[in-house]
Design goal:
The protein is mainly alpha-helical and 75 residues long. Helix content is 72%, strand content 0%. The chain has four helices and no strands. The chain is extended, with a radius of gyration of 16 Å.
């Protein structure tokens, strides 16, 4: 385990149990997504390609749009 990951786990220990469970679900999802057996669906591959095309064109969300999205998640 890396030192960075250990530090993240220490911070996660300060969260309430529900938040810890949400974080655990995210870690499991990322771990499964990283497995060699996982393949993108055609829809996900197309969405990824569209996103990469947008990035190549420099089409990024503004700071205000990102903050608005995070604000929705916090409430």
């Amino acid at each position: 385990m890396t030192k960075h990951f250990e530090m993240a786990i220490e911070e996660a220990r300060k969260l309430d149990p529900d938040q810890q469970n949400e974080l655990a679900d995210l870690i499991f999802a990322i771990s499964k997504a990283s497995s060699a057996d996982n393949h993108l669906s055609p829809e996900d591959a197309n969405a990824l390609e569209r996103g990469l095309d947008q990035a190549r064109r420099g089409e990024f969300a503004s700071d205000e749009e990102v903050e608005a999205a995070f604000a929705k998640c916090r409430s």
